[in-house]
Amino acid sequence: MRVVVCKTFFNGLSYYRAEEPARAVVEAGIGVEVVVVPGLATTMSTGPDPVVLDVDDQGADVVVMQLPKTVEMLQCLRILQARGTAVVVEVDDLLHGASYGLVGHLMAQVGASQRVLECAREADLVTVTTPVLLKEYARHGRGAVVPNAVPRRVAELTPAYERQPDRVVLGWTGNVLGHPYDLQEMGSGLQQALDATAGGSEFVVLGQRWDAAERLGLRAEPREVPWENAVDDYLALVGDTLDIGLAPLRVDRFNTAKSWLKVLEYAARGVFAVRSPITEYDRLGLGYRARAARDWAKALTRAVQDPGWRVEQARAAREVVLEQHLVEHRVPQWVGAWEQAAAHRAEARGKAAVTIG
């Protein structure tokens, strides 16, 4: 079987849901050829409203479209299926459920989230990261949950817990403007913990802090560590910088559908995590569950003051990642999904031939 994966331009998404799965499948040596491409070559009509006339499938049995959000991608899907090529739509976020201020909300405003839904409805199979997304994007019953995982090379980097820091670093990763509601879930818990451990801890934002201090009611600006665009470099930096990782998420429709990725990254790098009671974080079962400000304050304070406990928790979480959540563990699920898509396309084509005959 030959699979062509058309990846998105979003770095993290293409890394976890296209490039790394493709690499793992090829390295497994099971006779499945996977090629990752930045786009599909098409032939367009001329005129004021051009449409796709043909698309180069590169000899694929299955074409995977990651986050297809244009009318042209829907046209490509239909052409490929008419030719007998199966199409899988890969989605990692509930774009039509995004709150105001999120990137997904902007996509909804320009109609992109609707195009993703349309492509998913016509796909031979939809792959997603969570059961909630499966219900939203695969209501036709043709879908598969393939949870996020990390590459072995990342999980085998020197873990953060092997350090003995003079000052324990509590950190959050991301762009504050891209998460306008999440940090506030900690309430006063972070400042309480910083007060209780003054002189022995500091708060860092790995990414863009913007107005994080104001949002959290902090008495001092957090230190900002510049983001690394290459995902491998970013993941290395997480473990090299943080001792305790924060994963606050507002409980809303968009976040409830989200993957467990941030906590998984912390765990893989040996960083003790404190996180919100989000469905997928609970399903993963890693990290300290914090619902209210007092929970955040209690967990963070103890993690700073009791390094033995912090290290024990972080080490156990990393072992779970090594045993259950590496990209190589997902190979049967990825291949199984692609095979299901191919089988559906063959069945649909067979039915069409009988009807015509």
Automatic annotation (TrEMBL):
| All residue ranges annotated as the Spore protein YkvP/CgeB glycosyl transferase-like domain in the record | 192-334
Q: Which Gene3D superfamilies is this protein grouped with? A: Glycogen Phosphorylase B (3.40.50.2000)
**Keyword set, alphabetical order:** Transferase
Instruction: Offer an example of a GO molecular function term for this protein.
Output: transferase activity
**SUPFAM superfamilies, sorted:** UDP-Glycosyltransferase/glycogen phosphorylase (SSF53756)
- Whether Signal counts among this entry's keywords is no
Q: Which InterPro entries match?
A: YkvP/CgeB_Glyco_trans-like
Source organism's superkingdom?
Answer: Bacteria
The name under which this protein is listed is Glycosyl transferases group 1
| Source organism of the structure | Klenkia brasiliensis
